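Worked example 3. Consider a protein that binds S-adenosylmethionine.
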Amino acid sequence: MDLQLTAKVESAYSSPPWWYDLRGFLILKSSYRGSLLEQVAFFERNLRERHLEVAIGSGTLFSMVRTWHRWKGRPLPQVVGVDYSEKMLGGARQRFRAQPEIELLQGDVTDLSFDDVTFDSINVANAFHCFADADAALESMARVLSPGGTLAMNVLLYPRGWQPFRWLSERVNRWGIRKGILHTPYREEDVRGRLLACGLTIDSERVTGNCYFVVARKP
Ligand SMILES: C[S@@+](CC[C@H](N)C(=O)[O-])C[C@H]1O[C@@H](n2cnc3c(N)ncnc32)[C@H](O)[C@@H]1O
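Given these inputs, the predicted complex is written out as structure tokens:
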């Protein structure tokens, strides 16, 4: 990432983790038009033995995903959580301090510091549309995924549906772009095309609210 962009991401995510969580919930309802339960269930299904949580943020959502996984009686994976913002990671470090199976690292998704073929699953929750270089992010994630491994993401789409909800989503998105917490919304076919261009195949896809939920696989 260039220096200007680095400073932008750092300042966009410099709020205390509690404010970030509250703001995230309001954005989920007004812009994504989705539900927390739906996200937890979707991302829980994509936890495998060696898991990479990209842009883990303060870890609030991932802790719910992990709890849901445990309740279902499934074995807990070895997890590496990466995020660009030290401030967000500070919240995650505090949250997961008693979970030795979760390693947290500061890093840029476009330049992941892992060997090829390291992970069986990758989740990108609420973050793909925050990345300034989406293609570099996908290439980097595809590289560290093992053959047969899966990448799950929910991607913010351009607002759709009825007024005044569409108007509200547009307003929130414009504010997010100004603030630096949103890079751009997408069109579903654009994201699909980018995944295929990285050599991944599509396992499942659906649109709910203003979000595209996709699971892609490395052949
Ligand atoms: C909207 S938050 C989502 C956090 C978490 N996954 C969740 O669902 O609550 C987006 C996160 O992406 C991170 N991020 C933005 N650009 C990044 C990059 N290039 N590499 C790694 N993380 C990045 C931010 O620091 C922030 O924590």
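Take a moment to read the result before moving on. Residues 3-217 form a domain with the Rossmann fold fold (CATH 3.40.50.150). DSSP finds eight helices and seven strands in the chain.
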